[in-house]
Amino acid sequence: MPGRCVIGLQWGDEAKGKLVDLLTKEHDLVVRFQGGANAGHTVVVGEEVYKLSLLPSGILTPGVTCVIAGGVVVNPAKAIAELDELAGRSVEGLQRLRISDRAHVIMPWHFAEDRVLDKSTGEAENIGTTQRGIGPCYRDKVGRSFALRFGDLYRSDLRAKIEHRVDAKNRLLSVMSDAFEPLDATAIYNEYRGYADRLEQHVCDTTELLLSAAEADKKILYEGAQGALLDVDHGTFPFVTSSNSSGVGVPAGAGVPPKHVNHTLGVVKAYSTRVGGGPFPTEQDNQDGQYLRERGNEYGTVTRRPRRCGWLDAVAVRYTARLSGADSIAVMLLDVLSGLEEIKICTEYEIDGVRSRDFPTHVDDLRRVTPRYESVPGWAEDVTDCRSLEELPENARAYLNRVSELVGVPVEFVSVGPGRDQTIPAEGRPLVAATA
User: What are the residue numbers of the active site?
Assistant: First the structure.
């Protein structure tokens, strides 16, 4: 099984980083293939807690090459800051990081555009951007005229390219905002040349690296950021991220053909969360939602924004599991549900009196959804010390079985806490046969 990917099946924050950290030891390379520094991954190793937003979670495992592929947009200052923090905490092997020379660079004008555009949208259309320049950088990438790739930082015409872009962006942004302060091309050139010097040892043609590794049957783990419902083409547009964050984005972002991706592990919380704007059919803006938020510490890794919380949406997860080609799923944060007498799962949507298990293509239809729930009994027991399926309460196992039935994919892992040893494998077998 040379190629495996880990994909979030909800709106992100599914604890993908923990699964990547656990699976890394079985692989030779770990690859981030999309997104940017708006993707917070928290990994707990013993008593140490690591919060990463750009570097692959596999960076914490010795001997593994970690790759930031061409589909990622990179804030070089953030990459350096994370490398320096890990070095200060005695993490070894940081020289194993590779950054694609095709990856696009987030520049100061992208941060400025994010701030200006975020203020210009009405409340109903505000997508809740983290204002880290991600969207504007992807927009320039697609627009082609003002983009800069990592390889450009080492070219002799870099200063001229920056001057040209700063002149155009200053004129554009001054029209959009009276409060805009013009960008200084010389200061930007000096700043980014410094970043380029610091990172030069890591920059290479990662497409060639990954193709050669795949053809040599090296084991590669592809690490998704955000979640499939935030996919720019297949998610809850426009309340999405700026890249293909579902499983369909792996080949394009990493630069490898689909034949080299042999297994997809979908990651899902035992409930649902969302950050930012957009419809959320199973949201519980009530005591139940607050219970989930506090029990699950549902505050953003990157932003510390409180996450919106609700019951598991099996309609949405079934859709993203199919979209991403999930072969199995990992159910995370099961421990958060302990103490609830009753747990609900959304099994169908109702729109204008018509029930369906299909996920709507238009966000306005998703807003009109009335979720139809199935209630299952909860459990009072604390499951954080469970280390096997048999140790889980009967009602917890029944809940996992029902989720698997509804999604149509077997459960491979169950997480009952943040620690590495709090992830229960399904012993190479599904908890229940996929029937949906």
Answer: 13, 41
